[in-house]
Amino acid sequence: MSPNENRSDCPVANALDLLGDRWTLLIVRDIVLGQRFAYTEIGADEGIATNVLSNRLERLVCAEVIEQFQHPTDKRRRAYLPTEKGISLVRVLVELLVWGDAHTSATSGAEFAAAIRKDRETMIAHLEAKARQSVEDFHE
After folding, report:
1. How many structural domains are present in the chain?
2. What would the pLDDT profile of 27-36 be if each residue is shown by its tens digit?
3. I need a surface site. Which of 75, 79, 81, 127 has the fewest CB within 10 A?
4. Which residues form the signal peptide (predicted)?
5. φ and ψ at residue 37, rounded to 5 degrees
């Protein structure tokens, strides 16, 4: 199924068709929140297989969640930056982080989750602005 094909009329089902596998939101997290733009940086902490990473990046580019560019320091490499559509996933990532902090044994995001709980909207706005700024900085 291509990123533009919908198997149903349900927005949740359609979002999950694009984002609902094991790796895609982690890739989006790395690009949007982690500001990891180089192929070798994306998904490195989780050990995503290169064929899976390539496939997911291609799907996200086709769905206009991210854009692919030539890497500024090495023309043989590619860099991936979030689009506005990708940046709009900050809220989803934040909610998953808070949920995961509350309902799983993960501990690495506890301080961040606590800061989000104190002022969720300000944190989301800050993270979105930071992602936009990183895109601008890349193009300078």
Report:
1. 1
2. 999 999 988 9
3. 75
4. none
5. -110, -25
* Domain of residue 24, residue span: 11-139
Angle (CA) 92 77 2, round 5°: 50
Q: How far apart are the first and last CA of the chain?
A: 37
4, part of any domain: no
Asked whether residue 93 is assigned to any structural domain, the reply reads yes
Residue 2 lies in a domain: no
CATH of the domain at 16: 1.10.10.10
Helix intervals (H) in the chain? 11-19, 24-32, 50-62, 84-87, 90-103, 110-118, 120-139
b/e map of 23-62 (b: 16 or more CB within 10 Å)?
bbbbbbbbbbbbbbbebeebbeeeebeeeebeebbebbbe
pLDDT tens-digit map of 85-128: 999 999 999 999 999 999 999 888 888 999 999 999 999 999 99
SS3 76: coil
Residue 47 backbone class (left: φ over 0; alpha: ψ -120 to 50; beta: rest): left
